[in-house]
């Protein structure tokens, strides 16, 4: 739970940036307000030891708080762990914990409907349960590249969203990669990219360079594309490699590295060797 809380800002940023989160306009405003406001202290209590503490509207809840920004969030530790067949306790996963925290922080913004916040929490939880690859950079640990792979709803939604963050900004690189996918070259004029899937992403350290206060980070991986022909066909082509680079810059020696303008980012897609 503490890990989820420490990383909730990043999770909310991804939700706000990702179409996979499927936020309504009202939900977007609420999540944005939560992101700007932050939260208060976490306190762990037991419903079994303190009967009625988490009984809300006739149901025992996993957490509770007040309708005030920065209020303490009380967590029902009885529901934060479950026992496996051997009797060993296992904490709820980070996705579920993040959803529960968002629910309570939504209350702090004045939202009183449990149903609305349960739905919002479920959307965040679903996003975090996608197949996720996250790369951090050894020379600048505030830099991270995240690929969110949606796999479970059929070929039309086997897709990746690619995000890069630097501790200050989060940038969606998905459309930049999509613009390089060679559907028309492979399947004929008028064929457009419908989606792509990335895997085996890694930093290409041998291709990374330091020059003039700039780090040019190389990233490599594999790609599968799904295209859409003018006739409505959806051909798939596998066996492709993706290579690219991101430029990191800093304003002065003591400053952290930041992602340079997205216009300096390049990706290339070639047949895999």
Please characterize this protein's 3D structure:
Helix 2 (8-17) crosses helix 5. This protein folds into two domains: 2-128, no CATH class; 131-271, no CATH class. With 273 residues, it is α+β, with helices and mostly antiparallel strands. The protein has helices at 2-6, 8-17, 25-37, 94-108, 114-128, 174-178, 183-187; strands spanning 42-45, 55-56, 59-60, 63-64, 73-76, 81-83, 89-91, 131-137, 140-150, 159-165, 170-172, 192-203, 209-211, 214-228, 236-249, 258-259, 266-271.
Structural class: alpha+beta
Average of the residue pLDDT scores: 86
Strand content: 35-45%
Main β-sheet description: 6 strands, antiparallel
Helix content: 10-25%
Instruction: Report how far apart the termini are.
Output: 43 Å
Number of domains: 2
The H-and-E topology, N to C, reads as: HHHEEEEEEEHHEEEEHHEEEEEE
Poorly predicted regions are 153-157
- As a whole number of angstroms, the C-alpha radius of gyration is 22 Å
Shape: globular
The DSSP helix count reads: 7
Strand segment count? 17
Write the SSE topology.
Blueprint: H1 2-6, H2 8-17, H3 25-37, E1 42-45, E2 55-56, E3 59-60, E4 63-64, E5 73-76, E6 81-83, E7 89-91, H4 94-108, H5 114-128, E8 131-137, E9 140-150, E10 159-165, E11 170-172, H6 174-178, H7 183-187, E12 192-203, E13 209-211, E14 214-228, E15 236-249, E16 258-259, E17 266-271
Parallel strand pairs: 1-5
Antiparallel strand pairs: 2-3, 4-5, 6-7, 8-9, 9-10, 10-11, 12-14, 13-14, 14-15, 15-16, 15-17
Features:
single chain; alpha+beta; 25% helix; 37% strand; four-stranded antiparallel beta sheet; six-stranded antiparallel beta sheet; 273 residues; globular
